[in-house]
Amino acid sequence: MDEIELLSGVLSKTGDLIEGVEPGRLHAPTPCEDYDVETLVDHLVGWLLLFEARCHGHEYDADPARYRSGADPAGEFRDAAAGLVAGWEKYGFDREVGVTGDARLPAAMVFNMTLMEFTVHGWDLAVSSGRPVPFTEKEAAEILTRAEATLPPRYRGEGMPFGDIVPVPEEAPAADRLAGFLGRDPARWAPGAR
User: Fold this and answer.
1) What are the phi and psi torsion angles at 168 (to 5°)?
2) Alpha carbons within 13 A on the beta-carbon side of 2
3) Nearest to 110 by CA among 100, 119, 120
């Protein structure tokens, strides 16, 4: 898939999920044990602001983990998403991009990390707010392929950013297989399972 089309689709769908969060669901649990729905939304917006700034080569001194959205988190997310897409279109992939600290990574790796972040947390938000996962089979399969090539085992396990792989049947939707690869248990979050 075209990179910009893929990123735009994922961010648009994730923005729709944020916009559709009902006030009564803000404190519902999510597959991320440290987050309820409200703090997951804050996480999505905060990290998108970081990725947008760094894509443009700007510093980002705020801690995205401490970000708190204002009255219109979907609007904040969409504004940052537009800036991020514009940055990738303008500056391309033949460069290195910072994420946190002073380390710089190949742009393609940062791009794939971005796709993983907003697709799997979009999945988290969908299942915890009782809505269908919006990503197409084609989008999720492409991002799963990129995740498998990008995420080394040393980032998994206790105290690491990702949990161990949860086995998911091959016939499951690609979004569920991606969630399993990134440490979620889709069976636990299936409708009626909790």
Assistant:
1) -130, 135
2) 7
3) 100
